[in-house]
Design a protein that fits this description.
Layout (H helix, E strand, L loop, with lengths): L9 H22 L33 E6 L7 E5 L3 E5 L7 E2 L9 E7 L2 E9 L14 E4 L7 E4 L6 E6 L7 E5 L11 E5 L4
Antiparallel strand pairs: 1-2, 2-3, 3-4, 5-6, 6-7, 7-8, 9-10, 10-11
Length: 199
């Protein structure tokens, strides 16, 4: 007994493939005139302006979460700071997240603190305090008084690594910063700092 298999669906598959290719080409043609988004942290040097940085790894070392903090006034508001992935905020309990520091030169986060008496006051210590071969350094302390819409630089750039930030429970202008300092060498900027005027 001999069985012969015939494919009646081959012409249909080819026709469907040609339709898909045509539709894809139409979409590409329509998007062709859209301008490319501007580069983040583009160099002002004429020789380097056309260069675009891309991540080349190592992926296994870049996913560290350094701090998670929630607002005592609003349990739906939280911030997460990553060793190399910047600061993220949610105002709906984690359903949606917004990146806060995309436009900054440095995105290494060491510690985040929300003022217990005012959820709009947030201090961020840059530079992870994890002493390891792939640690990323920071550029001091940043703060906001409007819930993250605008950020101000508050100093302590040479600390490089900040392990803990704590805000006074009653006065949002009083803040303590525990700076580890340079992880692989001495520096005079390490230690405990306090501000009484919001930085």
């Amino acid at each position: 007994m001999r069985v012969t298999c015939r494919s009646h669906s081959r012409p249909r598959v080819l026709a469907l493939g040609m339709v898909c290719l045509g539709f894809s080409g139409l979409l590409t043609a329509q998007r062709g005139g859209a301008p490319a988004p501007p580069l983040i942290n583009q160099s002002q040097n004429p020789m380097l302006r056309s260069f675009e940085f891309r991540s080349i790894g190592p992926a296994v070392m870049m996913g560290r979460v350094d701090d998670i903090v929630g607002s005592e006034q609003d349990p739906m508001t939280m911030y997460i700071g990553f060793a190399t992935g910047g600061l993220w905020r949610t105002t709906d309990g984690g359903i949606h997240w917004k990146s806060m520091f995309d436009e900054m030169e440095n995105e290494s986060i060491g510690s985040v603190a929300i003022a217990p008496s005012d959820k709009n006051v947030v201090y961020v210590g840059k530079g992870e305090g994890n002493n390891r071969q792939s640690s990323s350094i920071g550029d001091g302390v940043w703060g906001t008084t409007d819930g993250g819409e605008h950020w101000s630089y508050l100093g302590l750039k040479e600390t490089q690594s900040i392990q803990r930030v704590v805000v006074d429970p009653k006065d949002p202008k009083i803040c303590f910063v525990a700076a580890v300092g340079h992880l692989f060498g001495p520096n005079k900027e390490r230690g405990l700092y306090r501000t009484q005027d919001g930085g």
